[in-house]
Design brief:
Strand 8 and strand 9 form a beta hairpin. It is built from 7 helices and 11 strands. By secondary structure, the protein is an alpha/beta fold. The longest helix has 13 residues. Pfam families: MTS. GO terms for molecular function: N-methyltransferase activity; nucleic acid binding; S-adenosylmethionine-dependent methyltransferase activity.
C-alpha cells in the first residue's frame, strides 16, 4: 500500500464499503459538496447503468457512487494530469480498475473514449466561481477547481446533451446564486430541471449549496425536496448528515 503514495500524500478511509482515497493537501481535496452530491445521485439511480463524472479531480465521486449504487460502469473525466494520475492510483488501491475508469481529457474535446448517447447519468461538482470573480488561489490546480477557467456550466450542458441517452439524467451541485442562469441554460440545451434540494449550513442561515437533477428531453415539472440542514443549534451535525456520512451520532 505504501508504494502507492508519493511525498505529501495520505490515505483517507471513506467509511463506505471499506473504500479509501489518496489525498494531497497541495491539491484540491474533496469536501462535503462531493459527499452530498453522491448521496443525492444515489437516491435516484440504481441498477446496471453507466455514469460519467465531469471534472472528477482525485476520483472521490466515482468511488462514492461505486459504494452507493450498482452502476455497471463509472467513468471519471479530468483535465489536470496530476489529479488523473492520483485518481488512478486510488482506483487501483481499491482494486476497482474493472469498474471505474479515469480518463485524462477535456470536456470540450473529450475524445473517442467518451461515447455519444451512451451514458445514463452525468454528474459534476463544477467550479462555482466565474473566471473573473473572487481571489484566485496561487496554486493553479486549486484555481482550476474553484474558478470557471477551463470549464463552465455551458460546457457541461453541451457535453451532457451530446453524451446522455435520451431521458438520461444530469446531476449538479452548485451555489444558489447561480441557479437562475443554470436553469435557463439547461432548458436551452433541452435538459429539464426535475428536482432541487437546497442545503443550509444551519436553520438560521441562507442556503449555500443547491443539488440539481435534470433530465434530457424531460417534460416540465419541478419538485423541490425538503431542505437539508447541516448543523443543529448546538453546532453539531444533524442526524441526516450523520446518516449521509454513515456515521453514528455521539451520545
Amino acid at each position: 500500500m505504501d508504494n502507492l503514495l508519493k511525498k505529501g500524500e495520505r490515505i483517507e478511509d471513506l467509511g463506505l464499503e471499506n473504500l479509501k482515497i489518496i489525498q494531497n493537501p497541495e491539491y484540491f481535496c474533496f469536501g462535503m459538496d462531493a459527499v452530498l452530491l453522491s448521496w443525492f445521485v444515489s437516491k435516484r439511480t440504481k441498477g446496471s447503468i453507466h455514469i460519467i463524472d465531469l471534472g472528477t479531480g482525485t476520483g472521490i465521486i466515482p468511488l462514492l457512487l461505486y459504494g452507493k449504487t450498482q452502476a455497471q460502469s463509472i467513468t471519471g473525466l479530468e483535465i489536470q494530469e496530476p489529479l488523473v494520475e492520483m485518481a488512478r492510483r486510488s482506483v487501483a488501491l481499491n482494486r476497482l480498475s474493472a469498474q471505474i475508469k479515469i480518463i485524462h481529457g477535456d470536456i470540450t474535446k473529450p475524445g473517442e473514449e467518451i461515447i455519444p448517447n451512451f451514458y445514463d447519468v452525468v454528474v459534476s461538482n463544477p467550479p462555482y466561481m466565474r473566471a473573473q470573480a473572487g481571489l484566485k488561489n496561487k496554486q493553479e490546480t486549486k484555481t482550476i477547481s474553484r474558478h470557471e477557467i477551463l470549464c463552465n456550466i455551458e460546457d457541461i450542458l453541451i457535453f451532457s446533451k451530446r453524451m446522455l441517452k435520451d431521458r438520461g439524467r444530469l446531476f449538479l451541485v452548485h451555489r444558489p446564486e447561480r441557479l437562475g442562469d443554470i436553469i435557463s441554460l439547461m432548458r436551452t440545451y433541452k435538459i429539464e430541471v426535475k428536482h432541487l434540494q437546497f442545503v443550509y449550513p444551519s436553520i438560521k442561515k441562507e442556503a449555500n449549496l443547491v443539488l440539481i437533477e435534470g433530465r434530457k428531453s424531460g417534460r416540465p415539472g419541478l419538485k423541490a425536496d425538503a431542505p437539508l440542514i447541516v448543523y443543529n443549534e448546538e453546532g453539531q451535525y444533524t442526524q441526516e448528515i450523520y446518516d449521509i456520512y454513515g456515521m453514528t451520532k455521539p451520545e
